[in-house]
């Protein structure tokens, strides 16, 4: 009885703390990248991991840079999944055209000739301008030797100043950036053309 009386005030205090916490804000809209507008092919098996990114630009939140350079979360809009996962899925979609090879997600456990290591350097809004930047390195899967590297960027202008229009513009910039990485992989894995036969 004494033990119960001694912990009762602690339980009451903990209950009071929980009751004053603000409720999580439900976003007005969840956004995806949508279907990729262009498709590329690869002539080898390429393992595609989720790109690396800071938590601010790689998660579900959407960030915008203000006039003083500070990054703030945009209210009312979020990604339907983490931004890095959306980019990975978009790249796999962009590499679905029929080449001699295939791009597969790393979590599938498949083996391949190449592996893509990539990083999101920017994925933010600045007013109504959406910005995306990616850095990519293509490695041989067996020896981890560097085959080629690239940096790509893209911007898109929102159709309006609403947060929904800005989120849609960021999705467009993301698709464009991912499309450029798909082109890079297609070029780097292309088999050399057969020499012309001499008659």
Write the layout of secondary structure elements.
Blueprint: H1 2-19, E1 29-31, E2 45-48, H2 55-58, E3 61-65, E4 71-79, H3 83-94, E5 102-105, E6 114-126, E7 129-140, E8 146-157, H4 163-189
Helix pairs in contact: 3-4
Keywords:
five-stranded mixed sheet, 31% strand, 199 residues, 8 strands, three-stranded mixed sheet, alpha/beta
Please explain how this structure is put together.
It is built from 4 helices and 8 strands; from the N terminus they run αββαββαββββα. It has 199 residues and is an alpha/beta fold. A 5-stranded mixed β-sheet has the order 5-2-6-7-8, covered by helices on one side. A 3-stranded mixed β-sheet has the order 1-4-3. The longest helix is centred in the last third of the chain and has 27 residues, at 163-189. The radius of gyration is 23 Å and the shape is elongated.
Overall, the morphology is: elongated
Number of DSSP-assigned strands: 8
Summarize the main sheet.
Answer: 5 strands, mixed
Unreliable stretches (pLDDT < 50, length at least 5) are 14-22
Brief rundown of the structure:
The protein is α/β, with parallel strands linked by helices and 199 residues long.
